[in-house]
Amino acid sequence: EVQLVESGGGVLRPGGSLRLSCVASGFPFGSFVMNWVRQAPGKGLEWVAGINENGDITNYAESVKGRFSISRDNAKNSVYLQMNSLRAEDTALYFCAKDEAIGGQAALDSWGQGTLVTASS
Amino acid sequence: SYVLTQPPSVSVALGKTARIPCGGDSIGGKSVHWYQRKPGQAPVLIIYYDSDRPSGIPERFSGSNSGNTATLTISGVEAGDDADYYCQVWDNSSDHPVFGGGTKLTVL
Predict the structure, then answer these.
(1) Chain segment A54-78, per-residue pLDDT in tens
(2) A40-55, pLDDT tens digit by residue?
(3) Which residue, of A52, A62, B15, B100, is most buried by count of CB atoms within 10 Å of its CB?
(4) Is B80 helix (H, G, I), strand (E, B) or coil?
(5) What values do phi and psi take at A87, rounded to 5?
(6) What does each C-alpha distance from A103 to A52, B52, B83 come to in angstroms?
């Protein structure tokens, strides 16, 4: 059974930094693109960042480009999201999500329960 | 970037058929995926590549895609289908997934 477990969320002031982690199990982690998707209170789903299988290609939503950084450690079956210069509008539930197929541009077939990030003064 | 448009809400009587549209420029030429999100739960992939169902998803859920509109159809709606539904495609211009704004399905 595929499992994705996020951690690292919390409450912090705007301008602060936070690192989210997602530990995966139940599938060959190093063979799949991984993503972070967020949902702000009362809003819809927003894709945030993605990283390819071996970690050398990353992509970001315009809203976080230059502030967030996605990385992965295939030996630890983990993907991370380093969040810097946090803004109030980054307040959201952050989900880790796995691509459904090898090769990218796929649906997201497994999601974690999410970790909550609150940026507030 | 590519824009997907969904109605904020759709209401349907118990046991009837719900149809949730997702509009986009020539969306019929793209692969559309659908997710269900209930409060306090992780999103669940319910339809992928326009009309395929992942293992464990009931046959009541189906999808279609043509022209400028993709549609999620839920037949014989049950109380448990009361949830938010999101469509998603891959945007080639920005090289990342794009979600629609979501539709709240209310079962009456």
Answers:
(1) 999 999 999 999 999 999 999 999 9
(2) 999 999 999 999 999 9
(3) B100
(4) helix
(5) -120, 160
(6) 9, 19, 31
Question: Do A107 and B96 lie within an 8 Å CB cutoff?
Answer: no
Query: Which tokens in the block code for residue A111?
Result: 């999601």
Tokens for A113? 């329960």
Burial of B65 by CB count in 10 Å (0-12 exposed, 13-18 middle, 19+ buried)?
A: buried
Interface test with A, best of B53, B96, B98 (most A CBs within 10 A): B96
Q: Which of chain B's residues have a Cβ under 8 Å away from the Cβ of A35?
A: 97
Contact A105 B86 (CB under 8 A): no
DSSP-derived 3-state class of residue B6: coil
* Dihedral angle sign, alpha carbons of residues B33, A61, A75, B43: negative
Burial code of A11-41, b = ≥16 C-beta within 10 A, e = fewer? ebeeeeebebbbbbeebebeebbbbbbbbee
